[in-house]
Amino acid sequence: MLLTGAAGFIGRRVHAALRGDGHDVVAVDAMLPAAHGVAVELPADCRRLDIRDAEALAPLLAGIDLVCHQAAVVGAGVNAADAPSYAQHNDYGTAVLLAQMFAAGVQRLVLASSMVVYGQGSYECPRHGVVDPPPRTRSDLDAGMFEHRCPLGGEVLAWRLVDEAAPMRPRSLYAASKTAQEHYALAWSESTGGSVVGLRYHNVYGPAMPRDTPYSGVAAIFRSALERGEPPAVFEDGGQMRDFVHVDDVAAANVAALHSQSDGFVAVNVCSGQPISILEVASLLSAARGGAAPVVTGRYRSGDVRHIVADPARAAGLLGFRAAVQPGQGLREFAFAPLRA
Description:
Elements: E1 2-4, H1 9-20, E2 26-29, H2 33-36, E3 47-48, H3 54-57, E4 67-69, H4 83-104, E5 108-114, E6 122-125, E7 129-131, H5 138-142, E8 158-162, H6 173-192, E9 195-201, E10 203-205, H7 218-227, E11 233-234, E12 241-242, E13 244-246, H8 247-258, E14 265-270, E15 276-277, H9 278-289, E16 295-296, E17 309-310, H10 313-319, H11 327-334
Parallel strand pairs: 1-2, 1-4, 2-3, 4-5, 5-9, 8-17, 9-14, 10-13, 11-16
Antiparallel strand pairs: 6-7, 6-8, 12-15
Helix pairs in contact: 1-8, 4-6, 7-9, 9-11
């Protein structure tokens, strides 16, 4: 099989899991400085390849039966100037890969997608039931009112589990590109008869996570603050709910997807199934390291999602995948895990 993005935070763990499952893996990575820095060496078992280069990609697909596509520019995007980078690498790179798979007769794809395709998540009103709230207003956020309000009566909404049937409503550059990847993969599947398992990763964390970049996950940002002797700075009131899933579980989900017999395109949440608040994440890390307690700042970032928590049922039913690492255990271990510069 061909594995793209094999030198990345998730890609390395996926690579190891695939080999552990007995697969012959052709591993490639473009080694973009934004993801790897300038001093990181290419792993010995990985080739440097930009999947946008169709001429270089084509020979590697000869004899391949499946592609596991992890390569992507990640993060929400610092500003609108990042849009071309997301479009070039995520949108166009995936389109080139799919075209070359078609030319080589490769019929199976496992695609790394993301929870960001869901936008702001799913909510329920105590009076009106399931509703789709508008984005939070600046006036509410400035007043410390962080929860969504019902568009019908103004009631405070409660979060609901997001399942794979939820509409795709991207709210960032990265989200737009991951949505595009899924759409390209769906169209490819329908036109070629190929099968696609789109794995919608939720908040991935674990050893070798990148640190101190605009693309770092919040768990790594909290870790870095504690290492500097500072308390983790928690935005809003810390009540934002998420699903944190360990990178080893993400790798296991990829192995499970390889064994799936599903036809066509199917999307699957990859999550722990154990909702946790951002304040709880910060508090767990602080307690584990014996550091200062988190500081709830009340600050907010425009466009941030309030709650997004995954429904794990389809992954369990379709792939037989259930996360093995619970957030409490995994985050305590992550408090001292090595990070990547």
